[in-house]
């Protein structure tokens, strides 16, 4: 499967096969680039595959993604190497030479079908992660990902010869050896992920000492149906269901001793809340859940709502305290959690049946070694060093980073960085190399082995032929053949009406069998094909390609799932399995008879891009795409570019924002591939992905222009909030963080002499009117406090906060601010501070919870952390014009909150920056790069394949009742000039809801027509029409 | 009646229940062979007529298996399916057939165990209900 020398320099190496690495690899592959994906584990999937469910949807989210992953053609571009380390790298961006070392697996991945024979005979030495984890097989089982294969631990095997013999197809290789490979790549993406803090040396929490203390990941495994207890939640000490469970946050994070990291691990507040909610969902009031936290850091998109729901709807109790210790009661093995609270200066002891430690993320020694090999700089915490304006670039050009290795983060942010890293890496790959192999060049020969590049013969017209069906039954080794009598089944198939030939084909997916089936199709002039084999979910495209090679339309093949849904399920009841196989094949034969040749809808791709919004995010996307040679239209509402960042002076890390933004504006304005339209407003829009038409009014006269483009990126930003609270907009001493940032830089003298500065957090955020967290205000407060201290070390600075949300490495600055004397005082919604004017100053009165007193400060400057509100008017208008959904608080709603944080639900639309949710510059830029990366997956195609499963209206039957118009989740059907419903095949998503709702049965969903569905019933009940 | 083995048709959404069924297979979790799976692109594609025809053809029970609420690949197909199932139940009630023969269930693609569980539960339930009364009618008609 290896192609030789010349094509290799276009490749990208991705190190690490967790969700971030997979996302990056898929994006590059979908953009036509070649990827070598290496992982040192024996199957890929990373940390996420161990999770039971993910917040905030509490679903198995990877499953939602998997259908997109199993599309054919990807494996062409991704070369997966598991059990592989990177041992050396030479060269520079565009021309790296990387040495890989692959450890022996002792299994031929190409041959292994994961039948499980070897595992049954030698359970001690066979490794198979998917089997241990109920999520992995389906979730990750797409052809190029998890090798659907076992691996052997030879050290534990006493009898390699006997082991070798258990495998009937000879996939076990006892003499397998470590191999070294040298590859040439243009760019490298590091996505090694993080490891989990090991709390076993923390004797005060009793992990390892007491049976009923777990880490959060262990608890996740216990909740999981495939976990060690089969999803049954019991205490190991006595096998009883716990009644009270406590979570302790920040174990191994935000610490200063015992090996803990000083940074915040960012994701633990949410996963502990999720675990508590899932527990309450399952056990209701039978289990009491308490979370001990320092600050609840639920600052992601809609995360604050999740936190509030945990409290209000699920009754999870949140206690703000860092417990001192966990002590086991030797009698009943209960755990006493000892803690104290601000309000009461007393020691409180509460007893729990189980304690879960929310352990944070660390960078492993292995990853540090890999970083050393790569020659990249690490920050003091061992993470890859990056910068705000270069969020996925390491210190070594051409080497990029995504996911946890950049900083601790959750899955959506990892996904964003994965796509961003893919975009940056593609930027180095020569554009010609990235394009698909042209059909007429010498390169073609190299692709000959691959199905996708073989030229298909013309399709035979079968419309007037009577159905002649061939049934081909796989035995899949012992998977089918070991349970039922395949020859007998074949004999039975011959008796089904309409079946011309039926034969057994061994492994139908093997090259040899496919050729055999093709010759049968031609020889017997078959025009319908049924495969009795595995799941159409995984193998339909393979067999579709096969019938195409035999000159048939690809929709004339049907797979009867006699393995996954029959012999695997009923393997102990061969009689029943055989009977079910007969039924399944009968149903498929009845169905395939009514199959009709269909044509996939394709459209030529327009490769221009419209970017709406000229802030940092919009400019980043535009520049990334323009640098790749794409034509970009950039429409900005205001007369100037720069957006909100143009008003920001410094980042928390001290980077100068103004010069960077100015540089960006300069590049954007002068880029020959970017047409800037400012001021501009979007007025109308039509078309479909690949061929949109958008009307823009722009320039001083607001002339109307119609732009044709293939994709659209929305980077319209959010607005700085300015609520009328605490004398803001009334008193000169009251400013926002944004205004203070400007004053510190532009007029430091006005700040220098301030003796007392008070800051109030969460003004206009986390309130009834604006329930979400604005995410950036805590870091802004810490940033400005530190800068004021720099100007005037004697200044008294008091920050009134609800939860300090300095996630990730921002925690370092929070710590520094405390060390430098900034006073942080907590308030709650019930004890909000009060502000009164006092001549040119203001008096701030607030509760001091530790001392239990009311304190008053006369402040020279009162700085309000007002955060963001969505640009409601813009998103509403644009949402209406582009048919996009919005969140309740007016941000654009992405296609999938976890896995597709950049894609909007309307194909061809992407979102970046604060139009998606509040975020800082670094995060906005990452998302903008990700949007450019995701856009390239579409732009690399010359045409858009829309499939054939679309709804069709029979105008004669249509009564124009409007039911389909209302039922369609995407508002596609409309009543045309002839007075009946019309459905644009290019925009139809193929769900079939309209077809099911249509009272006149005037609508049919191709591939799933009513007669085809009913034919299955006929086949099942053996009644012929 | 002693050896009554019900025939149950399960319309399964490609994105969840059908995948969950494959998952049950790959984990070798057994479930009753009484359940006959028909794959649909979305549970919202299942028409009342499909359910009624299944019963007319002789199915003793029918269920529609869609995604968990809020998880539909096509936004709200599963909710529409639920409405239709309720509609069929009302129709059955009217003509004197137990509405419990028809049901809507929800699961995610990862829930192989749940798929098997549901298959067991529904098979048990239908077994207790006995054969589809229409079948007796059809037999009588044939005999006459």
* Number of E strands of chain B: 4
CATH class category name of chain B: Alpha Beta
Structural class of chain B: alpha/beta
Strand fraction of chain A: 15-25%
Q: Helices and strands of chain B, in N-to-C order?
A: EHEHEHEHH
End-to-end distance of chain A, in Å? 48 Å
Total strands of chain A: the figure is 48
Structural category of chain A is alpha/beta
Into which percent range does the helicity of residues of chain A fall? 25-40%
Number of helix segments of chain B? 5
Overall description:
The complex is a heterodimer of chains A (about 1000) and B (about 140). Chain A has about 1000 residues and is of the alpha/beta class. Chain A contains 29 helices and 48 strands. In chain A, the strands form 15 sheets. A 5-stranded parallel sheet of chain A has the order 3-2-1-9-20, with helices on one face. In chain A, strand 46 (about 975) and strand 47 (about 980) form a beta hairpin. In chain A, helix 11 packs across helix 26 (about 920-940), helix 18 runs antiparallel to helix 29 (about 1010-1020) and helix 19 packs across helix 20. Chain A is globular, with a radius of gyration of 31 Å. The model of chain A is unreliable at about 1-10, about 55-75, about 130-145 and about 435-455 (pLDDT under 50). By secondary structure, chain B is an alpha/beta fold. Chain B has a single domain (about 10-145), classed as 3-Layer(aba) Sandwich (Rossmann fold). Helices cover about 45% and strands about 15% of the residues of chain B. Chain B has 5 helices and 4 strands; from the N terminus they run βαβαβαβαα. Chain B has helices spanning about 15-25, 50-55, 75-95, 110-130, 135-144, and strands at about 10-15, 35-40, 60-65, 100-105. The mean pLDDT of chain B is about 90. At the A-B interface, helix 2, helix 5, helix 17, helix 18 and helix 28 of A face helix 1, strand 2, helix 2, helix 3 and helix 4 of B.
């Amino acid at each position: 499967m290896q192609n030789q020398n010349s094509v290799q320099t276009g490749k990208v190496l991705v190190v690490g096969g967790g969700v971030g690495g997979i996302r990056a690899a898929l994006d590059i592959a979908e953009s036509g680039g070649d990827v070598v994906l290496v992982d040192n584990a024996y199957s890929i999937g990373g940390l996420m595959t161990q999770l039971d469910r993910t917040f905030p949807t509490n679903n198995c989210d990877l499953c939602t993604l998997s259908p997109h992953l199993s599309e054919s053609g990807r494996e062409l571009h991704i070369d997966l190497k598991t059990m592989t380390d990177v041992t050396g790298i030479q060269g520079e961006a565009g021309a790296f030479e990387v040495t890989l070392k692959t450890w022996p697996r002792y299994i031929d991945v190409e041959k292994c079908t994961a039948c499980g024979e070897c595992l049954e005979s030698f359970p001690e030495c066979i490794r198979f992660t998917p089997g241990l984890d109920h999520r992995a097989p389906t979730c990750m089982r797409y052809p190029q990902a998890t090798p659907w294969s076992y691996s052997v631990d030879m050290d534990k095997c006493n009898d390699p010869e006997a082991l070798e013999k258990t495998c009937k197809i000879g996939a076990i290789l006892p003499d397998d050896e470590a191999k070294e490979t040298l590859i040439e790549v243009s760019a490298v993406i590091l996505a090694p992920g993080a490891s989990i803090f090991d709390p076993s040396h923390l004797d005060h929490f009793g992990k390892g000492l007491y049976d009923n203390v777990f880490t959060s990941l262990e608890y996740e495994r216990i909740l999981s149906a495939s976990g060690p207890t089969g999803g049954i939640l019991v205490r190991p000490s006595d096998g009883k269901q716990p009644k009270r469970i406590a979570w302790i946050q920040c174990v191994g994070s935000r610490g200063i001793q015992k090996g803990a990291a000083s940074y915040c691990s960012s994701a633990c507040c949410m996963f502990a809340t999720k675990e508590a909610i899932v527990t309450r969902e399952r056990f209701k009031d039978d289990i009491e859940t308490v979370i001990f936290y320092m600050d609840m850091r639920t600052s992601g998109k809609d995360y604050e709502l999740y936190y509030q729901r945990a409290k209000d709807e699920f009754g999870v109790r949140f206690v703000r305290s860092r417990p001192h210790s966990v002590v086991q009661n030797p009698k009943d093995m209960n755990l006493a959690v000892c803690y104290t609270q601000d309000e009461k200066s007393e020691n409180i002891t509460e007893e729990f049946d189980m304690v879960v430690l929310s352990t944070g993320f660390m960078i492993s020694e292995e990853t540090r070694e890999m970083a050393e090999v790569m020659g990249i700089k690490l920050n003091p915490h061992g993470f890859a060093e990056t910068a705000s304006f270069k969020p996925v670039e390491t210190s070594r050009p051409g080497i990029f980073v995504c996911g946890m290795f950049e900083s601790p983060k959750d899955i959506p942010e990892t996904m964003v960085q994965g796509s961003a890293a893919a975009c940056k890496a593609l930027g180095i790959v020569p554009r010609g190399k990235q394009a698909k192999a042209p059909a007429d060049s010498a390169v073609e020969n190299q692709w000959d082995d691959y199905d996708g590049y073989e030229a298909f013969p013309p399709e035979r017209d079968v419309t007037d032929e009577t159905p002649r069906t061939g049934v081909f039954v796989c035995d899949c080794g012992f998977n089918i053949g070991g349970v039922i009598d395949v020859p007998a089944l074949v004999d039975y198939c011959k008796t089904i009406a309409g079946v011309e030939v039926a034969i057994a084909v061994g492994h139908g997916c093997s090259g040899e069998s496919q050729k055999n089936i093709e010759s049968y199709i031609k020889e017997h002039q078959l025009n319908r094909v049924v495969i009795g084999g595995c799941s159409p979910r995984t193998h339909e495209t393979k067999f579709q390609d096969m019938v195409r090679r035999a000159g048939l339309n690809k929709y004339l093949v049907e797979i009867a799932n006699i393995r996954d849904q029959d012999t695997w399920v009923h393997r102990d009841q061969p009689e029943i399995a055989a009977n079910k196989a007969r039924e399944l094949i009968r149903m498929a034969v009845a169905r395939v008879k009514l199959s009709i040749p269909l044509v996939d809808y394709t459209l030529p791709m327009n490769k221009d891009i419209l970017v709406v919004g000229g802030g940092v995010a919009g400019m980043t996307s535009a520049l990334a795409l323009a640098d790749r040679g794409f034509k970009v239209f950039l429409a900005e509402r205001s007369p100037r570019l720069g957006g909100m960042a143009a008003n920001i002076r410094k980042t928390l890390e001290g980077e100068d924002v103004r010069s960077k933004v100015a540089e960006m504006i300069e590049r954007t304005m002068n880029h020959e591939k970017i047409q800037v339209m400012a001021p501009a407003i979007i007025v109308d829009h039509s078309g479909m992905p690949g061929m949109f038409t958008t009307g823009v009014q722009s320039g001083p006269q607001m002339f109307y222009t119609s732009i044709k483009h293939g994709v659209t990126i929305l980077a319209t930003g959010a607005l700085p909030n300015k609520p009328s609270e605490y004398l803001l907009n009334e008193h000169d001493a009251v400013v926002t963080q944004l205004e203070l940032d400007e004053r510190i830089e532009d007029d430091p003298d006005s700040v220098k002499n301030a003796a007392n500065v008070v800051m109030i957090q969460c003004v206009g955020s986390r309130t009834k009117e604006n329930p979400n967290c604005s995410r950036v205000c805590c870091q802004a407060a810490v940033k400005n406090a530190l800068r004021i201290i720099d100007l005037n070390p004697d200044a008294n600075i008091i920050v009134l906060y609800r939860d300090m949300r300095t996630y990730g490495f921002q925690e370092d600055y929070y710590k520094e601010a405390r060390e430098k004397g900034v006073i942080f005082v907590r308030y709650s919604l019930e004890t909000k501070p009060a502000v009164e004017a006092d001549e040119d100053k203001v008096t701030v009165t607030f509760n001091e919870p530790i001392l239990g007193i009311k304190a008053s400060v006369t402040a020279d400057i009162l700085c309000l952390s007002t955060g963001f509100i969505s640009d409601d008017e813009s998103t509403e208008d644009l949402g209406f014009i582009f048919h996009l959904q919005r969140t309740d608080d007016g941000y654009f709603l992405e296609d999938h909150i976890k896995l597709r944080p950049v894609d909007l639900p309307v194909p061809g639309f992407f979102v970046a920056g604060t139009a998606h949710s509040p975020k800082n510059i670094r995060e906005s830029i990452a998302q903008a790069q990700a949007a450019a990366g995701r856009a390239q997956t579409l732009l690399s195609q010359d045409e858009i394949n829309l499939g054939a499963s679309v709804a069709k209206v029979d105008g004669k039957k249509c009564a124009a009742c409007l039911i389909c118009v209302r039922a369609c989740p995407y508002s596609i059907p409309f009543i045309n000039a002839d007075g009946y419903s019309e459905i644009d095949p290019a925009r139809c998503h193929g769900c079939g809801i309209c077809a099911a709702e249509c009272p006149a049965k005037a609508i049919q969903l191709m591939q799933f027509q009513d007669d085809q569905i009913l034919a299955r019933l006929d086949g099942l009940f053996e009644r012929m029409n | 009646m002693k050896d009554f083995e019900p025939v149950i048709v399960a319309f399964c959404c490609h994105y969840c229940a059908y995948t969950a069924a494959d998952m049950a297979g790959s984990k070798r979790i057994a479930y009753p062979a009484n359940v006959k799976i028909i794959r649909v692109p979305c549970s919202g594609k299942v028409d009342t007529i499909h359910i009624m025809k299944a019963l007319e053809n002789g199915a003793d029970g029918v269920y529609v298996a869609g995604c968990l609420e809020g998880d539909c690949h096509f936004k709200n197909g599963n909710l529409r399916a639920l409405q239709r199932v309720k509609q069929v139940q009302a129709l059955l009630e009217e003509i004197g057939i137990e509405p419990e023969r028809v049901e809507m269930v929800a699961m995610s693609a990862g829930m192989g165990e749940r798929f098997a569980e549901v298959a067991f539960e529904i098979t048990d339930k239908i077994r207790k209900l006995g054969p589809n009364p229409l079948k007796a009618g059809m037999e009588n008609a044939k005999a006459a």
